[in-house]
Specification:
- The structure is a homodimer.
- With about 550 residues, chain A is α/β, with parallel strands linked by helices.
- Chain A has 3 domains: about 300 residues, P-loop containing nucleotide triphosphate hydrolases (Rossmann fold), CATH 3.40.50; about 120 residues, Domain 2, N(10)-formyltetrahydrofolate synthetase, CATH 3.30.1510; about 80 residues, Formyltetrahydrofolate synthetase, domain 3 (Roll).
- In chain A, about 35% of the residues lie in helices and about 20% in strands.
- In chain A, a hairpin with a 5-residue loop joins strand 11 and strand 12.
- The first copy, chain A, starts with a helix and ends with a strand.
- In chain A, about 60% of the residues are buried.
- At the A-B interface, helix 7, strand 8, helix 9, helix 10 and strand 24 of A face helix 7, strand 8, helix 9, helix 10 and strand 24 of B.
- Chains A, B: It comes from Treponema saccharophilum DSM 2985.
- Chains A, B: Keywords: ATP-binding, Ligase, Nucleotide-binding, One-carbon metabolism.
């Protein structure tokens, strides 16, 4: 059966019943049909307060992975399965995940609700529109653009230099034709011509902002602080100067509230906000994590791409902003992915190869070392594929042991929570026996150059960082503007520990080149661009959209 | 109190209770919070079937108006108040309205939920996002664009001529900078450069399609039929050829289902789809009207702008597509608007003037004559303003009498349903005493030229129509392609009975110039452009967005 067929065969529990399991009453839910709900603002506040008390909140388990390969790792499947597994062994576990973007859904990757018997449901709704959060963020983002261009067109009292507008329009699709455009053509009544660029909604600063904001005031402060352009005399212009923040925040009044859904095994899952993990922080909202921490004894959450991107940003950006930290990290690996890191071609992956596995293990090894630098214990989740041999799995377990990490075979895809009980027990065990001694990789007080160099050397294993003079100048300006304390969010390829997507395995001792930097003063970090980062993906020759259909009863097929 | 303050003071009934009043059980609702719901697909089908039986459906009352002026007419306020008034006098009345677009909401006009004590609620939600229908239509529209541009970029197996793409991207905002743009810049990997244009979502063909489709199959057939471009050898290309209709329809799976909300007096209102009334049909969905007709003894619905645009399209496009017809028409007029049509400046409207009223009455008189041509009886609703004098109102009543139309003073804005009881009684009276003898203005079998000429002469009072040779050629081509039976949807200014916005009052004997035509083969009509039609409005110097705010409890202010 396909994922969607498994999901459709499943009988869901009313979401109010799922909420009740974690102490959230019906009066604290805003229902979106019987199987989806948002948490009311009042309940959100109560849960935030509880989660901020270290005595009252649950343990936080972060799922991350080895460097992605075309072989696939199944991080969401492991996260969801682990949540189910923890519930099966008697723990009150809650999962917190990102919302899927429509771009990948219709492009190459498909949806993002897990797979097999480790899925969240209703998967069609979660993958398509869900409760409208991404649409709300998209239109709020584009209203900011319309307000800016209207201001330039009407009076330009703020003296905005149209050549300096950095705030981009968005659409939540893969649409390469919108990457580079010219707007405002047509003459006197049709605006001021300028170059513009669309990015996919999930790569936007506003997505990052909603993901970090914990209240409407916090949201408004962040929107006020967005740097959107410069004036003709090069003064950075914040959106607050347009006096239109209230309308933008009003559009986001529901988007800021976490959504609750369920796994196939009827366990609670908060699914909220979906920032990309290359250009932004790559993890679900602070609000969703706080709700989960307040309502579960164990919280399973994940961060996008591999540990060099998702986990580092989770620790240094999200944990710092939210005042939380993980108690353990689960690193997802597959025999197939490691064999690719060891040099095997995708077509050959079904052939057993201990040698390729050993060689590719270097990638996992680096990620395990990196996680130690944050003072958090880790476990390796070996996501089982049918082609894996017993010898390969035994070898992988042995290799992990040499790094002091336990490797646990996971069969969530085929068996749901039952196939994840061993990992669940291992997670409980490690959190009970090993107290995390969490620390950030860098201090807020360090300079931007130091922050970037620390990440590049310690996480990416570069020997040094190359900063163009223009970047050094911009970083100095940001520091002078009072932003020195901000963390950095490095935008680099997800396909390598380095900046170069071709370097698989465990590259080291190279020069990490920074191309440009951009101040996300609303979100509260500095984006550091290294290599070509896609903020607007394109569709492939045969988009996933071509497989999707719907019948007269509204039943969807071909969504994966 | 402002509209939003009145709305927020009101205590809503759970929407399930409101639905129960019209025989719709909770199992037939998909709740979006406690006060909004969609009708399930099963219930929609049951209601459609009932509504198609003339013995079982309620009476249909269409609200239309005199030609709009900056003085405002309050058509929605009258429609909502009339629904409440009918319920107050013991009739089971249901209202069917369009969904507001975010463009006007942040631009000049504000929201579209009525005013004073004749409002629909929750007005903040209905005005902002609502149940996500317009967002779903926007993203589905833009996925069609992405699929087209991706096809051109990848292989262009269909040999699409990029210069001929007529399918436009949309955003549901007033954003003039997107009216004329160049896309696909940047080089080899960033698409094929071409000219493009955004329009506001509510002006799109896809909005018109969702508004007319009665099932998923019907929707898919219409999407298949959309003409999106031409090939290099000038063959019109339909979207069906891209084999991606299923994904587009899947995105619209919920958008096709009507939404139920309530008036301040807790009466049921279907609010669904919002096509513009200049470029499209300007009235709520067929599905919503059918649901209302099946569940109410009286259904009050409205069509955008004045009777020359909204009412004509309601009769000739919507009624034809849905197999329904109105039993009576209510024409909304105000003393102030008629005085403007009589030549008074807006600043002087508070000064009593019988002369200006008499002169301006000509506009109302033409609309009353026009409605007679459809064989439907009409009533004039005089929407009372505080500056109206008794003499002016008496004169207006007398003038209407000369046309054989009863004029009824309406005080829905100030008094809610209580101020609308007299109009409600008059509506019941006219539908009981006068049987409508409904007829279309033109037959489907007439040529496009005949159809356009009939509307221009009979409704717009032009002496003739000017067709450029290129338009005649296109119309002939459409007929040869097999579209001869389609109705025409004339896109012209709303500010005059003619094509010229400066001609107030009752212009006649002029030449009506057709500029261009466009085949909406998906929606099922031919758009006839006369004059400059704005399909992407711009923001004013001081956008309404600047007044909107939200507090930490999520309470919105300044939305009107």
């Amino acid at each position: 059966m396909t994922d969607i067929e498994i999901a459709q065969k499943n009988v869901m529990a009313p979401i109010a019943d799922v909420a009740k399991k974690i102490g959230i009453g019906e009066e604290s839910l805003e229902l979106y049909g019987p199987y989806k709900a948002k948490i009311t603002m009042a309940e959100l506040r109560a849960l935030q307060e509880k989660a901020r008390d270290p005595q009252k909140r649950g343990k936080l388990i972060l799922t991350t992975a080895v460097t992605p390969t075309p072989a696939g790792e199944g991080k969401s499947t492991v996260s969801i399965g682990l949540g189910d597994g923890l519930n099966r062994i008697g723990k009150k576990a809650v999962i917190a995940l990102r919302e899927p973007s429509l771009g990948p859904c219709f492009g190459v990757k498909g949806g993002a609700c897990g797979g097999g018997y480790a899925q969240i449901v209703p998967m069609e709704d979660i993958n398509l529109h869900f409760t409208g959060d991404i649409h709300a963020i998209s239109i709020a983002n584009n209203l900011i653009s319309a307000i800016i261009d209207n201001h330039i067109h009407q009076t330009n009292a703020l003296r905005i230099d149209p050549r300096t507008v950095t705030w981009k329009r968005v659409v939540d699709l893969n649409d390469r034709a919108l990457r580079n455009i010219t707007i405002g053509l047509g003459g006197r009544t049709d605006g001021i011509p300028r170059e513009d660029h669309f990015c996919i909604s999930v790569a936007s600063e506003l997505m990052a902002i909603v993901c970090l904001a914990t209240s409407i005031s916090d949201l408004k402060k962040r929107i006020d602080n967005i740097t959107v352009a410069q004036t003709f005399d090069r003064r950075p212009l914040k959106f607050g100067e347009f006096k239109c923040t209230g309308a933008i925040a009003a559009l986001l009044k529901d988007a800021i509230k976490p959504n609750l859904v369920q796994t196939l095994e009827k366990n609670p899952v908060f699914v909220h906000c979906g920032p990309f993990a290359n250009i932004a922080q790559g993890t679900n909202s602070v609000n969703a994590t706080l709700c989960a921490l307040a309502s579960g004894d164990y919280v399973v959450t994940e961060a996008g791409f591999a540990a060099d991107l998702g986990a580092e940003k989770f620790m240094d950006i999200k944990c710092r902003a939210a005042g939380i930290s993980p108690d353990a990290v689960v690193v997802v690996a597959t025999v197939r992915a490691l064999k690719m890191h060891g040099g095997m071609a995708k077509a050959d992956l079904s052939t057993p190869s201990i040698a390729a596995l050993q060689k590719g293990f270097e990638n996992l090894s680096v990620h395990l070392d990196n996680i130690k630098k944050f003072g958090v214990p880790s476990i390796v989740a070996v996501n089982k594929f049918v082609t894996d041999t017993d010898e390969e799995i035994a070898m992988l377990e042995k290799l992990c042991e040499t790094k002091g990490a336990r490797a646990v075979l996971c069969e969530g895809w085929a068996k749901g929570g039952e196939g994840m009980e061993e990992l669940a027990r291992a997670v409980v065990d490690i959190t009970e026996k090993t107290k995390a001694d969490f620390r950030y990789l860098y201090e807020s007080s360090a300079s931007f150059v130091e922050k970037i160099r620390t990440i590049a050397r310690q996480i990416y294993r570069a020997s040094d960082v190359e900063f163009p003079p223009s970047v050094l100048k911009k970083l100095r300006e940001y520091e002078e503007m009072g932003y020195k304390e901000l963390p950095v969010c490095i935008a680099k390829t997800q396909n390598s520990l380095s900046h170069d997507p071709k370097l698989m395995g465990a590259p080291k001792d190279y020069i990490f080149p920074v191309r440009d930097v951009q101040l996300y003063s609303g979100a509260g970090f500095v984006v550091v661009l290294a290599g070509d980062i896609m903020t607007m993906p394109g569709l492939p020759k045969m988009p996933a959209a071509l497989n999707i259909d719907i019948d007269d009863d509204g039943v969807i097929s071909g969504l994966f």
